[in-house]
Design a protein that fits this description.
Elements lengths: L3 E8 L3 E4 L15 H5 L2 E7 H9 L14 E4 L9 E3 L5 H12 L5 E4 L3 H9 L5 E7 L6 E3 L8 E12 L5 E12 L1
Parallel strand pairs: 1-6, 1-7, 3-4, 3-6, 4-5
Antiparallel strand pairs: 2-8, 7-10, 9-10
Amino acid sequence: MCRLRYNVAATLDGYIASADHSTSWIIEDPTIDFNALFAEFSTFIMGRRTYETMLSFGDANLLKGLPAGAVKVISSTKSWPGVEVIKNGPGLVERVRQLKGGEGARGKDIWFMGGAKLAGLLIQAGLLDVVEVAIMPVVIGDGVKMVELFPGQTQVQLHLENVEKKESGIIMTRYTVGSRRPV
C-alpha cells in the first residue's frame, strides 16, 4: 500500500494560506526541486480552494502536464475537465482508502495538498501516513490553518523523521503519523 503524504508550505504560526486565501508569503527557494518531488507521486488529492489556487498560477502551475486522472479534487460544488471530483461528504473517506489501496497509487505515493478540515478528517480516519511541512520564516497571525480537528476528535501524535534547514530560512520537516488519543 502506498503512503498518503500531506505535503504543504506553512507559516511559522501554522497557516497554509492568508485570511484572503493567498499564498504570497511563500518564499521561493531555487534549491527545492519540485519536479523531483512531484515524481514521487502518482496521485494528487486536494480541496477545491487548493486546486483553484494552483490553477491561478497559470503556466507556473506544477499540476499542468500531469497524466489524466492524476488530480483528484474534493468538492461539492464544482468540476473541471480531466479531474476526478470526489464529493465532499459520505463516501469521501472510502474513496481515499480505495486510492491508497492501489487504485490511485500506481507504485508511488499520494500527495494530499490541503485544506485544514480535510487534513483533520484524513488523520482521524487513519489514512494520513506522513506530514511534510515546509515551514516558512514568516508569521501572518490569521488565515487557513494547516490542520483543523473537529470537536470530539482525538489528539494525534506525530513522530519527527527528518529536518532540513535551507539557506532561505525555510525548515523542511517530515513527520510520520502515530497514535491517536482523546483530547
